[in-house]
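_Full entry_
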Amino acid sequence: MIVCFTAGCVDSEVVKEVITSRDIRVPSPRAGLLDEMALALDSQSLVLADWKFLGAKLGVPRKILKQFERSSVQSPTNRLFEYLAVTRPQITLKTLMEVLLLMNRNDLIKFIGDENLGGKFNG
């Protein structure tokens, strides 16, 4: 699979900086990105892949995914990205976009592009 990003951000930007950064001293125009992704990925659907599929494809153990599912009122997508920021801080935006493409989550690819993070994405 060939992936190209143009404008907006660099392929090598790490997800923890782009999506989960919570520096309250510097408000981010992207602050709602995680919330929007959570709305899309938290919903269970027979057609669309969800946060569990994303976590599995990014190498999160099933045991950890089960904990996210049952132990909190917090969004499982939020917990997934917090976990990834700590345990796999090297995951790039390019990797995330490739997994979203694999998941057929064109809605989220478009959303990230509209947020000027991924620019135009061609897979």
